[in-house]
Write a structure and sequence with these properties.
The complex is a heterodimer. Chain A is α/β, with parallel strands linked by helices. Chain A is built from eleven helices and 23 strands. Chain A has one domain. In chain B, the strands form three sheets. Chain B has a six-stranded mixed beta sheet with strand order 6-9-10-3-11-12, sandwiched between helices. Classes of the chains: A alpha/beta, B alpha/beta.
Chain lengths: 478, 262
């Protein structure tokens, strides 16, 4: 890779600052007392503590998965701080009571929360380390019957809803990191869309890790009742530290009859430096249950950050005629590693799924697509279309595809397409020989490659995602 | 063509270049004036393609000596994109496929970067569309090609015509055609040659690199040079190409070897 390509890919990380703020932090380590402490700090109902303890006891018996195509030193789970929250008044009645340093932090990240500056068409839940700081437009949404708040608040205000759905899509013992999350999660977002309501604005959660030794374990639960519709977006950033931070989130989506959930992610956690030092371990379980007939769940993700990504947003298609979609762009650079993809589990009749995955690997990174398409015996007439494209930038990056296909119904139809392309010296020379700069060349090729996925993002975020990818690749080609 | 007293477009003197430490060009010298068409012929491995890539600034080739003056400017000090914007155009022997980037966008961005360099206003999509419809005729291309990805799934002949279309749009001062005839059937060859002839004018210069005399039946050169072992060993008029066709390269190479031995 020439020097020009390298400078093009290695753009400095804009969100690497640390906010100095007084925190309420518990000692390092994990045991039942720590879990009781977290639960009591959050003043949770009894069932929640039980849920956590059950998960913890399962977790103790489980082992960390070794099948992903990633390598990292063993994580010392006793060296992590499981709860860290900015000190502030117990109950915040309005934004005026939120610490100005926090508001300033989010403003710096491009997420203004104050009445005057906030985005007009997007409601935001802002999460800082372990807790939710503020949720905008709560009252306005409440008028439509839409509940959008932190999951801690939901546990107090709508305990029966949370109890009914929490863990119903991702059971506490689903996998090692989901079990850990179920035991120690500190906050996250809760969304409930009542029957027949089309949510009037985009809902969004912004996750910010600030502390250097704290793991972030958030939990998101979205329930869409019959005939309802919601579009949700999450974003995330973290400061630059030499050490690695663990982020193990769980997201559960439930769509009832004729309901539709569109879930978009723009993930820009700190990825580590150009030598692979530091960065977030992003070990996430995301799953949607299309429980009702004609329901639809669509995942769109743009993954650009994190030292390591381990993530498979999935759809379980139970309702007849339900639809699952997965649109993904995963970019890795330097020494980043990503093992990401999806699972589409067809159970109901005439269920359909679409998988479009675009992997871009630059530098010395490893980028793997791993996907399962399963047609169970009752999935009469089920269909899947999968397309997995990889793009290599330079000569030292890796791209892998691991498709798993299980078909137990002979009427099911599957199609799988895959391609690999490369941005190398010769492609770039072709552009420059026509007078087009290398930066423009890379950005044209990347935009073209990712078009099918970006088209799925809400408008404002599609532009943002395009820009983000160009920035991330600046200096990597040449 | 009368070229006495015309402006010198390209002047190459004692140019040496290597790739991965292996010397390929060993003292190339050449001068091309406005309005001239020069042909470079020569056996495989003589350095013809390397010469074209060095002129265009391909990063894999390292210039180790000599000079290249293009319209009074030191070409070797310019980045590849600056050379292109100043009017150096290379029609590739193997045009690259660029998935996901439409031919139209590619052409427009390229055209506008040249316009910008010339201090002209960039053309918007509508004006550019008008311009391109005209140019499509030069190579008898269907406008359906514009919405396809650059060269993706194009046949060999379509790729070469696409190169000439780009040349028609960019209107270079110096067009270098690197074995543009390779892999073309006779019809495609005529279309390509016809396109080149339409674009040649008293203001610009063409450097046609080819293996075979065949192309030179359609594009009539003012000068023919024979390259061997990294430099020009003999030059002549278009009759030299016919002689090479009849006798091959060996007699020239033998003379060259004898000369080196002395």
């Amino acid at each position: 890779m020439s020097a020009a390509v390298k400078t093009l890919v290695n753009q400095p990380y804009k969100y690497g600052f640390v906010t100095t703020i007084e925190t309420d932090t518990i000692p390092r380590g994990l045991n039942e007392d720590v879990i009781r402490l977290i639960s009591s700090k959050k003043n949770e109902p009894e069932f929640m503590l039980e849920f956590r303890l059950r998960a913890y006891r399962h977790w103790l018996k489980m082992t960390e998965p070794t099948w992903p195509h990633v390598t990292y030193p063993a994580i010392d789970y006793q060296d992590i701080i499981y709860y860290s929250a900015p000190k502030q008044k117990a109950k915040k009645n309005s934004l005026d009571e939120v610490d100005p340093a926090l508001l300033e932090t989010f403003e710096k990240l491009g997420i203004p929360l104050s009445e005057q500056k906030r985005l007009t068409n997007v409601a935001v839940d802002a999460i800082f380390d372990s807790v939710s700081i503020a949720t905008t437009f709560r009252e306005k949404l409440a008028k439509e019957g839409v509940i959008f708040c932190s999951i801690s608040e939901a546990l107090h205000e709508y305990p029966e809803l949370v109890q009914k759905y929490l863990g119903s899509v991702v059971p506490i013992a689903d996998n090692y990191f989901a079990a850990l999350n179920s035991a120690v999660f500190s906050d996250g977002s809760f969304v409930y869309i009542p029957k027949g309501v089309k949510c009037p604005m985009e809902l969004s959660t912004y996750f910010r890790i600030n502390s250097g030794d704290t793991g972030q374990f958030e939990r998101t639960l979205i329930v869409a009742e019959e005939g309802s519709h919601v579009s949700y977006l999450e974003g995330c950033t973290a400061p630059m530290y030499d050490s690695n931070q663990l982020h193990a989130a769980v997201v559960e989506l439930v769509a009832l009859d004729n309901a539709e959930i569109k879930y978009s992610t723009v993930q820009n956690w700190y990825a580590g430096d150009e030598n692979g030092k530091g960065g977030i371990y992003n070990f996430v379980t995301k799953r949607g249950l299309c429980q009702g007939v004609n329901s639809k769940i669509s995942w769109t993700q743009v993954e650009t950050g994190s030292a390591i990504t381990w993530k498979y947003p999935s759809c379980v298609l139970v309702g007849d005629n339900s639809v699952g979609e997965f649109y993904s762009v995963a970019l890795t650079n330097n020494y980043q590693q990503a093992d990401t993809g999806t699972k589409m589990v067809h159970i109901g009749k005439n269920t359909r799924s679409t998988i479009i995955s675009k992997g871009i690997s630059a530098g010395h990174s490893k980028n793997s697509y791993r996907g399962l398409v399963k047609m169970s015996p009752k999935a009469e007439g089920a269909r899947n279309y999968s397309q997995c494209d990889s793009m290599l930038i330079g000569d030292n990056a890796q791209a892998n595809t691991f498709p798993y296909i299980q078909v137990q119904n002979h009427t099911a139809k599957l199609e799988h397409e895959a391609s690999t392309s490369k941005i190398g010296e010769d492609q770039l020379f072709y552009f420059t020989q026509r007078g087009i700069s290398q930066e423009d060349a890379v950005s044209m090729m990347i935009s073209g490659f990712c078009k099918d996925v970006f088209n799925q993002l809400p408008m404002e975020f599609a532009v943002e995602a395009d820009r983000l990818l160009s920035l991330k690749l600046e200096g990597s080609v040449g | 063509m009368m070229t006495e007293g015309s402006e010198v477009i390209l002047s190459v003197r004692d140019l040496t270049a290597e790739v991965d430490g292996t010397p390929i060009l060993k003292g190339m010298s050449l001068e091309i004036k406005a309005g001239e068409i020069h042909a470079i012929m020569g056996p495989n491995g003589s350095g013809k393609s390397t010469f074209s890539k060095v002129l265009a600034g391909h990063p894999a080739y390292e210039v180790t000596g000599g000079e290249v003056i293009f319209q009074g400017q030191n070409l070797l000090e310019m980045e590849p994109e600056e050379r292109a914007r100043s009017g150096v155009f290379l029609a590739f022997q193997y045009p690259l496929e660029i998935p996901g980037v439409s031919n139209l966008d590619f052409l427009r961005v390229a055209y506008n970067s040249r316009r910008k360099h010339q201090g002209l206003e960039e053309l918007d999509a509508f004006d550019f569309d008008e311009l391109i419809q005209e140019k499509l005729d030069v190579v008898k291309m269907d406008s359906a090609f514009l919405s396809r990805s650059v060269n993706e799934g194009f046949s060999g002949g379509e790729k070469k015509r696409n190169e000439i279309l780009q040349m028609a749009i960019l209107e270079p001062k110096l067009a270098i055609l690197d074995e543009t005839d390779s892999g073309l059937d006779i019809d495609a060859l005529k279309i390509v040659a016809n396109g080149v002839n339409q674009l040649a004018n008293p203001e610009n210069a063409m450097l046609v690199i080819t293996h075979y005399q065949r192309l030179l039946n359609y594009i009539i050169p003012d000068r023919v040079h024979v390259m061997a072992n990294g430099r020009i060993i003999t030059s002549g008029t278009k009759e030299l190409a016919l002689e090479l066709e009849a006798r091959g390269y060996d007699w020239l190479l033998e003379a060259e070897t004898a000369e080196v031995a002395v």
